[in-house]
Protein backbone atom coordinates (compact mmCIF):
# COMPACT_ATOMS: atom_id res chain seq x y z
CA UNK A 1 0.00 0.00 0.00
CA UNK A 2 2.89 2.35 0.72
CA UNK A 3 4.21 1.80 -2.82
CA UNK A 4 0.76 2.50 -4.28
CA UNK A 5 0.36 5.72 -2.30
CA UNK A 6 3.90 6.82 -3.13
CA UNK A 7 3.25 6.30 -6.84
CA UNK A 8 0.02 8.28 -6.55
CA UNK A 9 1.85 11.10 -4.78
CA UNK A 10 4.42 11.31 -7.60
CA UNK A 11 1.63 11.49 -10.18
CA UNK A 12 -0.07 14.25 -8.19
CA UNK A 13 3.18 16.22 -7.97
CA UNK A 14 3.57 16.03 -11.75
CA UNK A 15 -0.02 17.19 -12.20
CA UNK A 16 0.36 20.00 -9.67
CA UNK A 17 3.49 21.23 -11.45
CA UNK A 18 1.34 21.99 -14.51
CA UNK A 19 -2.06 22.76 -12.97
CA UNK A 20 -1.28 23.83 -9.41
CA UNK A 21 -0.49 27.42 -10.32
CA UNK A 22 -3.70 27.85 -12.35
CA UNK A 23 -7.28 28.52 -11.25
CA UNK A 24 -9.57 25.55 -11.93
CA UNK A 25 -12.82 27.28 -10.89
CA UNK A 26 -12.71 30.75 -12.41
CA UNK A 27 -12.02 31.93 -15.95
CA UNK A 28 -8.85 34.02 -16.03
CA UNK A 29 -10.10 36.48 -18.71
CA UNK A 30 -10.86 39.24 -16.19
CA UNK A 31 -7.31 38.97 -14.84
CA UNK A 32 -5.96 40.12 -18.20
CA UNK A 33 -2.78 38.69 -19.64
CA UNK A 34 -1.70 36.29 -16.90
CA UNK A 35 2.04 35.93 -16.33
CA UNK A 36 1.84 32.14 -16.75
CA UNK A 37 -1.00 29.63 -16.78
CA UNK A 38 -2.00 26.19 -18.06
CA UNK A 39 -3.67 26.41 -21.49
CA UNK A 40 -5.62 24.18 -23.86
CA UNK A 41 -6.66 24.39 -27.50
CA UNK A 42 -10.10 22.98 -28.36
CA UNK A 43 -10.18 21.29 -31.77
CA UNK A 44 -13.83 20.34 -31.33
CA UNK A 45 -14.92 23.98 -31.22
CA UNK A 46 -12.32 25.27 -33.69
CA UNK A 47 -11.29 22.37 -35.98
CA UNK A 48 -9.99 24.91 -38.53
CA UNK A 49 -7.05 25.61 -36.21
CA UNK A 50 -5.31 22.51 -37.58
CA UNK A 51 -4.71 24.23 -40.92
CA UNK A 52 -5.49 27.93 -40.47
CA UNK A 53 -3.13 29.96 -38.26
CA UNK A 54 -5.68 32.77 -37.88
CA UNK A 55 -8.07 30.34 -36.15
CA UNK A 56 -5.70 29.34 -33.38
CA UNK A 57 -7.04 29.96 -29.89
CA UNK A 58 -6.46 28.93 -26.28
CA UNK A 59 -8.64 28.44 -23.21
CA UNK A 60 -7.76 28.50 -19.52
CA UNK A 61 -7.93 25.51 -17.16
CA UNK A 62 -11.34 26.39 -15.72
CA UNK A 63 -12.92 26.79 -19.17
CA UNK A 64 -11.39 23.52 -20.35
CA UNK A 65 -13.27 21.81 -17.51
CA UNK A 66 -16.55 23.74 -17.55
CA UNK A 67 -17.03 24.80 -21.18
CA UNK A 68 -15.13 22.14 -23.16
CA UNK A 69 -15.77 18.95 -21.23
CA UNK A 70 -15.59 15.83 -23.46
CA UNK A 71 -14.09 17.91 -26.29
CA UNK A 72 -10.87 17.14 -28.16
CA UNK A 73 -8.39 19.27 -26.27
CA UNK A 74 -4.72 19.87 -26.95
CA UNK A 75 -2.76 20.18 -23.72
CA UNK A 76 -0.38 23.11 -24.22
CA UNK A 77 1.37 22.93 -20.83
CA UNK A 78 1.90 26.60 -19.81
CA UNK A 79 2.18 29.83 -21.77
CA UNK A 80 3.06 33.37 -20.72
CA UNK A 81 1.09 36.62 -20.97
CA UNK A 82 -2.06 35.00 -22.32
CA UNK A 83 -5.74 35.90 -21.92
CA UNK A 84 -8.43 33.23 -22.26
CA UNK A 85 -10.12 33.05 -25.70
CA UNK A 86 -13.16 30.98 -24.63
CA UNK A 87 -16.26 32.71 -26.03
CA UNK A 88 -14.17 35.61 -27.33
CA UNK A 89 -13.43 37.03 -30.78
CA UNK A 90 -11.50 33.96 -31.88
CA UNK A 91 -14.21 31.58 -30.68
CA UNK A 92 -17.47 33.39 -31.54
CA UNK A 93 -19.49 30.18 -31.75
CA UNK A 94 -18.64 29.25 -28.15
CA UNK A 95 -20.62 30.46 -25.14
CA UNK A 96 -18.37 30.75 -22.08
CA UNK A 97 -20.26 29.49 -19.03
CA UNK A 98 -17.97 31.20 -16.53
CA UNK A 99 -17.54 34.65 -18.07
CA UNK A 100 -19.93 35.23 -21.01
CA UNK A 101 -18.99 38.85 -21.80
CA UNK A 102 -15.68 38.88 -23.67
CA UNK A 103 -16.03 41.68 -26.17
CA UNK A 104 -12.43 42.90 -26.25
CA UNK A 105 -10.06 41.16 -28.65
CA UNK A 106 -7.01 39.50 -27.12
CA UNK A 107 -4.58 41.32 -29.38
CA UNK A 108 -1.51 40.60 -27.23
CA UNK A 109 -1.93 36.81 -27.26
CA UNK A 110 0.78 34.96 -29.14
CA UNK A 111 -0.02 31.71 -30.95
CA UNK A 112 2.60 29.27 -32.17
CA UNK A 113 2.18 25.96 -33.98
CA UNK A 114 1.41 24.18 -30.67
CA UNK A 115 -2.14 25.60 -30.88
CA UNK A 116 -2.55 23.55 -34.07
CA UNK A 117 -1.21 20.38 -32.46
CA UNK A 118 2.28 20.58 -34.01
CA UNK A 119 5.66 20.82 -32.28
CA UNK A 120 9.40 21.11 -32.87
CA UNK A 121 11.26 22.01 -36.08
CA UNK A 122 9.92 18.73 -37.51
CA UNK A 123 6.35 20.11 -37.25
CA UNK A 124 4.91 16.84 -35.98
CA UNK A 125 2.17 16.08 -33.43
CA UNK A 126 2.92 14.77 -29.94
CA UNK A 127 2.78 11.92 -29.38
CA UNK A 128 3.69 11.14 -32.97
CA UNK A 129 2.10 7.88 -34.19
CA UNK A 130 4.72 7.62 -36.96
CA UNK A 131 7.74 8.15 -34.71
CA UNK A 132 9.00 5.17 -32.73
CA UNK A 133 12.15 6.91 -31.43
CA UNK A 134 12.13 7.48 -27.66
CA UNK A 135 13.15 11.10 -27.23
CA UNK A 136 12.19 13.67 -24.61
CA UNK A 137 10.94 17.12 -25.57
CA UNK A 138 12.11 20.36 -24.01
CA UNK A 139 10.47 23.78 -24.20
CA UNK A 140 12.23 26.91 -25.45
CA UNK A 141 11.67 29.69 -22.90
CA UNK A 142 11.35 32.35 -25.61
CA UNK A 143 9.14 31.03 -28.42
CA UNK A 144 7.67 28.44 -25.98
CA UNK A 145 7.61 25.75 -28.65
CA UNK A 146 8.63 22.21 -27.72
CA UNK A 147 11.60 20.48 -29.38
CA UNK A 148 12.90 16.95 -29.60
CA UNK A 149 16.37 16.87 -28.11
CA UNK A 150 17.72 15.26 -31.28
CA UNK A 151 16.37 18.12 -33.41
CA UNK A 152 18.18 20.87 -31.51
CA UNK A 153 21.41 20.05 -33.38
CA UNK A 154 23.47 20.39 -30.20
CA UNK A 155 25.02 17.99 -27.74
CA UNK A 156 22.85 17.29 -24.71
CA UNK A 157 24.29 18.85 -21.51
CA UNK A 158 26.42 16.40 -19.56
CA UNK A 159 24.66 17.12 -16.29
CA UNK A 160 21.03 17.74 -17.15
CA UNK A 161 20.13 18.69 -13.55
CA UNK A 162 22.36 21.79 -13.66
CA UNK A 163 20.42 23.31 -16.54
CA UNK A 164 17.07 24.94 -15.89
CA UNK A 165 16.14 26.54 -19.22
CA UNK A 166 16.77 26.25 -22.96
CA UNK A 167 16.74 28.76 -25.82
CA UNK A 168 16.37 27.23 -29.28
CA UNK A 169 18.73 28.12 -32.12
CA UNK A 170 16.10 30.17 -33.96
CA UNK A 171 15.48 32.35 -30.90
CA UNK A 172 19.22 32.76 -30.32
CA UNK A 173 19.53 34.27 -33.78
CA UNK A 174 16.45 36.45 -33.26
CA UNK A 175 17.82 37.70 -29.89
CA UNK A 176 21.57 38.13 -30.52
CA UNK A 177 22.15 39.95 -27.22
CA UNK A 178 21.95 36.55 -25.49
CA UNK A 179 25.12 35.43 -27.27
CA UNK A 180 27.11 37.80 -25.04
CA UNK A 181 26.23 35.72 -21.97
CA UNK A 182 26.83 32.21 -23.31
CA UNK A 183 29.58 30.48 -21.34
CA UNK A 184 30.00 33.45 -19.00
CA UNK A 185 27.40 32.55 -16.40
CA UNK A 186 28.53 29.52 -14.43
CA UNK A 187 25.72 28.99 -11.92
CA UNK A 188 23.25 30.87 -9.76
CA UNK A 189 25.88 31.85 -7.17
CA UNK A 190 28.79 32.73 -9.45
CA UNK A 191 29.09 34.67 -12.68
CA UNK A 192 32.20 34.61 -14.82
CA UNK A 193 32.44 38.06 -16.36
CA UNK A 194 36.19 38.60 -16.13
CA UNK A 195 36.34 40.24 -19.55
CA UNK A 196 33.42 42.62 -18.92
CA UNK A 197 34.05 46.19 -19.99
CA UNK A 198 31.75 48.74 -18.41
CA UNK A 199 30.59 51.31 -20.95
CA UNK A 200 28.77 54.55 -20.24
CA UNK A 201 25.57 54.40 -22.28
CA UNK A 202 24.07 57.64 -20.96
CA UNK A 203 26.72 60.11 -22.11
CA UNK A 204 26.79 61.66 -18.63
CA UNK A 205 30.13 60.29 -17.44
CA UNK A 206 32.51 63.04 -18.54
CA UNK A 207 34.52 63.38 -15.36
CA UNK A 208 35.27 59.75 -14.59
CA UNK A 209 37.75 57.61 -16.46
CA UNK A 210 36.49 54.18 -17.60
CA UNK A 211 39.74 52.65 -16.38
CA UNK A 212 39.22 53.70 -12.76
CA UNK A 213 38.61 50.92 -10.22
CA UNK A 214 34.91 50.32 -9.75
CA UNK A 215 32.58 48.35 -7.52
CA UNK A 216 29.02 47.30 -8.23
CA UNK A 217 26.71 48.08 -5.36
CA UNK A 218 23.43 47.30 -7.09
CA UNK A 219 21.60 44.05 -6.43
CA UNK A 220 20.90 41.47 -9.13
CA UNK A 221 17.41 42.85 -9.78
CA UNK A 222 18.47 46.52 -9.85
CA UNK A 223 20.09 48.51 -12.68
CA UNK A 224 23.86 48.14 -12.49
CA UNK A 225 25.60 51.34 -11.47
CA UNK A 226 29.33 51.91 -11.11
CA UNK A 227 30.70 53.50 -7.95
CA UNK A 228 34.20 54.92 -7.52
CA UNK A 229 36.38 53.12 -5.00
CA UNK A 230 36.75 55.72 -2.20
CA UNK A 231 40.07 54.24 -1.12
CA UNK A 232 41.55 54.96 -4.55
CA UNK A 233 39.99 58.39 -5.07
CA UNK A 234 41.23 61.67 -3.62
CA UNK A 235 39.08 64.06 -1.52
CA UNK A 236 38.12 66.18 -4.54
CA UNK A 237 37.24 63.14 -6.64
CA UNK A 238 35.22 61.65 -3.80
CA UNK A 239 33.24 64.88 -3.37
CA UNK A 240 32.70 65.12 -7.15
CA UNK A 241 31.47 61.52 -7.23
CA UNK A 242 28.97 62.21 -4.46
CA UNK A 243 27.47 65.19 -6.27
CA UNK A 244 27.54 63.57 -9.72
CA UNK A 245 24.32 62.05 -11.08
CA UNK A 246 23.88 58.30 -10.91
CA UNK A 247 25.27 56.71 -14.04
CA UNK A 248 23.53 53.91 -15.85
CA UNK A 249 26.43 51.69 -16.85
CA UNK A 250 26.11 48.77 -19.24
CA UNK A 251 27.52 45.57 -17.73
CA UNK A 252 26.70 43.32 -20.65
CA UNK A 253 29.84 41.30 -21.43
CA UNK A 254 31.23 42.05 -24.89
CA UNK A 255 31.15 39.43 -27.60
CA UNK A 256 34.76 39.16 -28.75
CA UNK A 257 35.97 37.60 -31.96
CA UNK A 258 37.01 34.42 -30.17
CA UNK A 259 33.78 34.10 -28.17
CA UNK A 260 31.79 32.71 -31.06
CA UNK A 261 34.13 29.74 -31.32
CA UNK A 262 34.87 29.27 -27.61
CA UNK A 263 31.48 29.95 -26.03
CA UNK A 264 28.66 30.26 -28.52
CA UNK A 265 28.23 27.77 -31.28
CA UNK A 266 25.24 28.08 -33.59
CA UNK A 267 22.18 26.29 -32.25
CA UNK A 268 20.28 25.93 -28.99
CA UNK A 269 21.78 26.98 -25.66
CA UNK A 270 21.21 25.66 -22.13
CA UNK A 271 21.15 27.95 -19.09
CA UNK A 272 21.74 27.34 -15.40
CA UNK A 273 19.19 28.05 -12.69
CA UNK A 274 19.06 31.76 -11.82
CA UNK A 275 20.93 32.91 -14.92
CA UNK A 276 18.42 35.66 -15.72
CA UNK A 277 19.41 37.81 -12.75
CA UNK A 278 22.82 38.36 -14.35
CA UNK A 279 21.32 40.02 -17.42
CA UNK A 280 22.33 43.66 -17.65
CA UNK A 281 19.49 46.02 -16.74
CA UNK A 282 20.91 49.33 -17.90
CA UNK A 283 18.72 51.66 -19.97
CA UNK A 284 20.26 50.62 -23.26
CA UNK A 285 19.82 46.90 -22.59
CA UNK A 286 16.25 47.34 -21.35
CA UNK A 287 15.43 49.17 -24.57
CA UNK A 288 17.01 46.25 -26.41
CA UNK A 289 14.80 43.76 -24.53
CA UNK A 290 11.71 45.85 -25.35
CA UNK A 291 12.71 45.99 -29.00
CA UNK A 292 12.90 42.18 -29.08
CA UNK A 293 9.75 41.79 -26.93
CA UNK A 294 11.80 40.00 -24.29
CA UNK A 295 11.21 42.08 -21.14
CA UNK A 296 9.79 38.94 -19.50
CA UNK A 297 13.37 37.73 -19.05
CA UNK A 298 13.66 40.20 -16.16
CA UNK A 299 10.48 38.95 -14.47
CA UNK A 300 11.20 36.24 -11.90
CA UNK A 301 7.55 35.14 -12.01
CA UNK A 302 7.91 34.28 -15.70
CA UNK A 303 9.94 31.12 -15.14
CA UNK A 304 8.29 27.71 -15.18
CA UNK A 305 10.19 26.91 -11.97
CA UNK A 306 8.45 29.78 -10.16
CA UNK A 307 5.06 28.71 -11.50
CA UNK A 308 5.59 25.10 -10.44
CA UNK A 309 6.74 26.16 -6.98
CA UNK A 310 3.50 28.12 -6.51
CA UNK A 311 1.54 24.99 -7.41
CA UNK A 312 3.49 22.86 -4.96
CA UNK A 313 3.00 25.37 -2.14
CA UNK A 314 -0.75 25.41 -2.76
CA UNK A 315 -0.83 21.64 -2.59
CA UNK A 316 1.19 21.61 0.63
CA UNK A 317 -1.17 24.19 2.10
CA UNK A 318 -4.08 21.79 1.60
CA UNK A 319 -4.98 19.06 4.09
CA UNK A 320 -1.74 17.13 3.72
CA UNK A 321 -0.56 14.95 0.83
CA UNK A 322 -2.51 11.99 -0.50
CA UNK A 323 0.25 9.74 0.84
CA UNK A 324 -0.18 11.07 4.39
CA UNK A 325 -3.99 10.86 4.21
CA UNK A 326 -3.81 7.35 2.73
CA UNK A 327 -1.45 6.05 5.41
CA UNK A 328 -3.61 7.59 8.13
CA UNK A 329 -6.71 5.89 6.72
CA UNK A 330 -4.90 2.57 6.32
CA UNK A 331 -3.81 2.62 9.96
CA UNK A 332 -7.43 2.82 11.09
CA UNK A 333 -8.43 -0.42 9.32
CA UNK A 334 -8.11 -3.93 10.67
CA UNK A 335 -5.88 -6.46 8.95
CA UNK A 336 -8.66 -8.33 7.11
CA UNK A 337 -10.14 -5.10 5.70
CA UNK A 338 -6.69 -3.98 4.55
CA UNK A 339 -6.16 -7.23 2.62
CA UNK A 340 -9.62 -7.04 1.02
CA UNK A 341 -9.12 -3.40 0.03
CA UNK A 342 -5.70 -4.01 -1.56
CA UNK A 343 -7.00 -7.10 -3.38
CA UNK A 344 -9.87 -5.13 -4.89
CA UNK A 345 -7.57 -2.21 -5.75
CA UNK A 346 -5.19 -4.45 -7.67
CA UNK A 347 -8.10 -6.09 -9.47
CA UNK A 348 -9.52 -2.69 -10.45
CA UNK A 349 -6.09 -1.49 -11.62
CA UNK A 350 -5.53 -4.54 -13.85
CA UNK A 351 -9.01 -4.27 -15.36
CA UNK A 352 -8.57 -0.53 -16.02
CA UNK A 353 -5.26 -1.12 -17.79
CA UNK A 354 -6.92 -3.73 -20.01
CA UNK A 355 -9.75 -1.31 -20.76
CA UNK A 356 -7.40 1.57 -21.67
CA UNK A 357 -5.15 -0.66 -23.80
CA UNK A 358 -7.78 -0.72 -26.57
CA UNK A 359 -7.70 3.08 -26.77
CA UNK A 360 -3.93 3.01 -27.19
CA UNK A 361 -4.20 0.39 -29.93
CA UNK A 362 -6.91 2.29 -31.80
CA UNK A 363 -5.34 5.72 -31.04
CA UNK A 364 -8.59 7.00 -29.57
CA UNK A 365 -9.12 9.79 -27.04
CA UNK A 366 -10.36 8.61 -23.64
CA UNK A 367 -13.42 10.60 -22.60
CA UNK A 368 -15.16 10.97 -19.26
CA UNK A 369 -18.02 8.83 -20.62
CA UNK A 370 -15.58 5.97 -21.29
CA UNK A 371 -14.32 6.02 -17.69
CA UNK A 372 -17.86 6.28 -16.29
CA UNK A 373 -18.92 3.31 -18.40
CA UNK A 374 -15.94 1.27 -17.17
CA UNK A 375 -16.70 1.79 -13.47
CA UNK A 376 -20.41 1.20 -13.97
CA UNK A 377 -19.56 -2.15 -15.55
CA UNK A 378 -17.10 -2.96 -12.76
CA UNK A 379 -19.68 -2.19 -10.06
CA UNK A 380 -22.22 -4.41 -11.81
CA UNK A 381 -19.72 -7.29 -11.85
CA UNK A 382 -19.00 -6.75 -8.14
CA UNK A 383 -22.71 -6.87 -7.27
CA UNK A 384 -23.18 -10.06 -9.30
CA UNK A 385 -20.13 -11.64 -7.67
CA UNK A 386 -21.44 -10.86 -4.18
CA UNK A 387 -24.93 -12.17 -4.94
CA UNK A 388 -23.50 -15.45 -6.28
CA UNK A 389 -21.06 -15.88 -3.39
CA UNK A 390 -21.72 -18.79 -0.98
CA UNK A 391 -22.96 -18.00 2.56
CA UNK A 392 -20.25 -16.97 5.00
CA UNK A 393 -20.66 -20.13 7.16
CA UNK A 394 -20.07 -22.37 4.09
CA UNK A 395 -16.63 -20.93 3.36
Automatic annotation (TrEMBL):
Which key words are in the record? Metal-binding, Zinc, Zinc-finger
Cellular component aspect of the GO annotation = cytoplasm
The UBR-type domain sits at 25-101
Keyword Phosphoprotein among record annotations? no
Zinc finger residue extent: UBR-type: 25-101
Instruction: Locate the transmembrane regions by residue number.
Output: none
Q: Name one Pfam family in it.
A: zf-UBR
Q: Does the keyword Metal-binding apply?
A: yes
Q: Which GO terms describe its molecular function?
A: ubiquitin protein ligase activity; zinc ion binding
Question: Where do the record's region annotations for Disordered lie?
Answer: 204-253
Q: What is this protein called?
A: AGAP009512-PA-like protein
What is the source species?
Anopheles sinensis (Mosquito)
